[in-house]
Amino acid sequence: MADSNQQTGTTALQLAAAWLFVGIPLTWGVIQTLINAMKLFQ
Amino acid sequence: MGFLDRSHSIAGPGFSRWMVPPAALCIHLCIGQAYAFSVFNLPMSKLIGISQSGPDDWKLTDLGWIFSIAIFVLGFSAAIFGRWVEEGGPRRAMFTAALCWGIGFLISAYGVYIHNLWVVYFGYGLVGGCGLGIGYISPVSTLIKWFPDRPGMATGMAIMGFGGGAFIASPLSVWLMSKFSTPTHVGVLETFVVLGVVYFAFMMVGAFIVRIPAPGWKPEGYVAPTQASKLITTSDVYVYDALKTPQFWCIWIVLCINVTAGIGVLGQASAMSQEMFPGRITAVAAAGFVGLASLFNMLGRFVWASASDYIGRKNTYFCFMVLGFIMYCSIPYMGNTGNIVGFVLCFLLIYTMYGGGFSTVPAYLRDMFGTRYVGAIHGLLITAWSMAGIFGPVLVNYIRQYNIDHGVPKAQAYNVTMYIMGGLFIIGFIANALVRAVDARYHMKPESNDGAAAAMRAGAAAKPAGA
Fold it and tell me: B309: helix, coil or strand?
């Protein structure tokens, strides 16, 4: 594996990919929970 | 495995610090699955009987121990391995956490296959629990070093992920079990295998992208304070010296009380809401209430920790103690007057503060003890969580049962517990008020700091001045 500290600079694409990688599953989980929580008001 | 070394994870020029929170979230979103483990309890009680529990099936009471062991091991592994995590760097810790967490699932799958609950206790409880503890503290000090200007927000983001992990794990596990189940098989085994592999891969992404700042790095435009303010030190305290300070134990008490109050009612939220409002809150509505409570728990982790960067850590905990006291003392009134809206609002605020207590504490420790060993000290403090995990449910469940056994109506069976919780917040308020700046005799000496840094770079343990 390449020495990881040789990387110079973070591109906007890398930043977006990293946030989407964690953001998409988290958003999906929050939506599922919100759908479940709506039962309180039914 | 040089890739895992601390020296190999130092950020190069131009590395964005905003890559580090996603790395931390990769870990916390996975280990947060622990909060959703209960979705396996019922299917695991029908592994043999399939449609209903058979005589040789595991009992729900025995299955409940899997989660309890994991949370207990979380607290103690964080305490035991804290210094190792701190000195070895975040990448080695994240890799180890991923390995423990993934292998824990695979061992548990084997336990399900041979139908031996002890193997599951060992796999998920012990091995997975070590993954929980190491994973929980692994990104904390790294985030604090990358965000010296907003440490509360940074750690709040990561610890929010721990709350959010259950949101993903719960529907994902149910979906996987539905895909793997057949008329003769409940699908738990395959679900454990898939989760183990997926979580390992997801956590490894975090381990790969995490970086530590280069020595001397600071955010653009940020001027580090040269003199300690009243409650924010510029010095470091060695991990085991922190244990000798009253500040550590005051914060331990504050956290323990905050978690005790929250964890007790969080576990009983569904039953409590139905019993306090019989016929008005149905089981379905109660499930919705639990979901909403989890969301507020997660949001509180980010919002309160971020707010603490502006109002200060001590003031944030004062808010928790004062508001917690008011909320807990109000709940019996809400129950007696049938005020469901007031009841729900009280609890939602309590849940934000429960989550906020977890996420604000790393920054509180950083303010008190400096950044050098904050992750390890945080690990030691998490034992408060383990203790609260025992106190909270005991307070709620046993006092409720005692009241019911002595003829108190179910709708009022929680009132005494609520007042006791309120009383605990007074103790917490006093403990928080006693927090002062750490005495200078506990600070690591500058020459020792240099030596420690050199030793750390060489991969050896630092020798503290005050040890």
Answer: helix
Q: Where in chain B is the domain with CATH 1.20.1250.20?
A: 2-217, 239-441
Q: List chain A residues with CB under 8 Å of B344.
A: 40
Can you tell me the distance from the alpha carbon of B307 to that of B322, in angstroms, rounded to the nearest whole number? 16
Report the SS3 class of residue B245: coil
Q: Which residues of A touch B9 (CB under 8 A)?
A: 4-5
| Phi, psi (deg, nearest 5) at residue B443 | -70, 145
CB B64 within 8 A of CB B226: no
Q: How many residues does chain B have?
A: 467
Distances (CA, A) of A27 to A17, A23, B152, B225, B439: 15, 6, 22, 38, 45
| Nearest CB partner across the interface for A39, out of B14, B15, B285 | B285
Q: Name the CATH topology of B2-217.
A: Growth Hormone; Chain: A; (1.20.1250)
Query: Which residue, B11, B352, B359, B368, is CA-closest to B154?
Result: B359
Residue of A nearest to B285 (CA): A40
DSSP type of residue B52: S
CB contact under 8 A, A33 and B294: yes
- Best mutation target among A35, A40, A41 (most B Cβ atoms within 10 Å) is A40
- pLDDT values of chain B reduced to their tens digit, one per residue, 467 residues: 678 888 889 998 899 999 999 999 999 999 999 988 888 988 999 999 988 888 889 988 888 889 888 988 998 899 999 889 988 999 999 999 999 999 999 999 999 999 999 999 999 999 999 999 999 999 988 999 899 999 999 999 989 999 889 889 988 998 999 999 999 899 999 999 999 999 999 999 999 999 999 988 889 888 877 766 778 888 889 989 999 999 999 999 999 999 998 887 877 777 788 888 888 888 888 878 888 888 899 999 999 999 999 999 999 999 999 999 999 999 999 988 989 999 999 999 999 999 999 999 999 999 999 988 898 999 999 999 888 877 887 788 788 888 888 888 888 888 888 999 999 999 999 999 999 999 989 998 775 554 444 444 444 333 333 33
A13 close contact with B: CB closer than 8 A: no
Nearest CA in chain B to A24: B168
Q: B14 touching A, CB under 8 A?
A: yes
**ipTM (interface pTM):** 0.86
Domain spanning B239-441: which CATH class is it, in words?
Answer: mainly alpha
Interface with B, mutate which of A15, A19, A21, A38 (most B CBs under 10 A): A21
In three-state secondary structure terms, B261 is helix
Cβ–Cβ contact B173 with A under 8 A:
no
Say yes or no for a CB contact (<8 Å) between B19 and A14: yes
